[in-house]
Amino acid sequence: xxxxxxxxxxxxxxxxxxxxxxxxxxxxxxxxxxxxxxxxxxxxxxxxxxxxxxxxxxxxxxxxxxxxxxxxxxxxxxxxxxxxxxxxxxxxxxxxxxxxxxxxxxxxxxxxxxxxxxxxxxxxxxxxxxxxxxxxxxxxxxxxxxxxxxxxxxxxxxxxxxxxxxxxxxxxxxxxxxxxxxxxxxxxxxxxxxxxxxxxxxxxxxxxxxxxxxxxxxxxxxxxxxxxxxxxxxxxxxxxxxxxxxxxxxxxxxxxxxxxxxxxxxxxxxxxxxxxxxxxxxxxxxxxxxxxxxxxxxxxxxxxxxxxxxxxxxxxxxxxxxxxxxxxxxxxxxxxxxx
Length: 339
Hints:
Blueprint: H1 2-25, E1 36-41, H2 47-56, H3 63-72, E2 82-87, H4 92-101, E3 106-110, H5 117-126, H6 134-141, E4 171-175, H7 181-198, H8 201-206, H9 211-225, H10 232-245, H11 253-260, H12 269-272, H13 296-303, E5 312-315, E6 321-324, H14 327-337
Antiparallel strand pairs: 1-2, 3-4, 5-6
């Protein structure tokens, strides 16, 4: 009898010890830490793999406890794949809840370099954050007068308004619920102010160009070199500024595509005759405003162009760039690489 009581006591102590460990292991790693941690869960990942990843990121206290908790709740087959935002202040219960539903309090939203206002509108619509057109409408109608660096909207393309070119491409954390197009636009503009207006103030002040000219040229550089080697940007910048200063036409097809909202279809002779000041094939000088929201490297390239002997450039079917000093050489390159 004494042995049975002793065994029962040991089992009870063991159970209590396990319960204390288990409950403690499910608590937040750091209840006061609000730093965001990005976690990418691959499709088909096992509970063990997910738990190990969470442990390595400092988000759970115990791999074993998290695995047990997941199994106790029958959630092994319910874990969603995708990119998630967690915090060390989340409990195992909160983390599992996010992984089961695939939806957290915050979403990761990346605005790629070279996106125009209309592209950002489409991105937000696709993510289910806005009704289609809400962001584009805000670009034209919201009161953004607080941002003194924005140009006068008069003469700018209606589709992008005065904010086109000034919405900083980056990765942002946004609320999954209660998202506001206006609030997000102000975040993009605030980031531009911090990264460009303030961060590059020394270069901007030393430049003979206005901020609007710099941002407009940066958008052309972005569109002409997007997806290319970063080293191309300063040289392309130097060529475009040199052509501008010489009074030569810039001849950037991307400006025609922008004003006609024709991102991929072939450009026709009729397109090239479009009577818009954004048509740099027909009119000399910079377009009235940016045609995209350029990334940091393109903005720096616009500020720090590389001088060269070249006046022309083109990209072949493989994306390789070919420079030329004369129009004759350029035509030879066209016949050689674009046929």
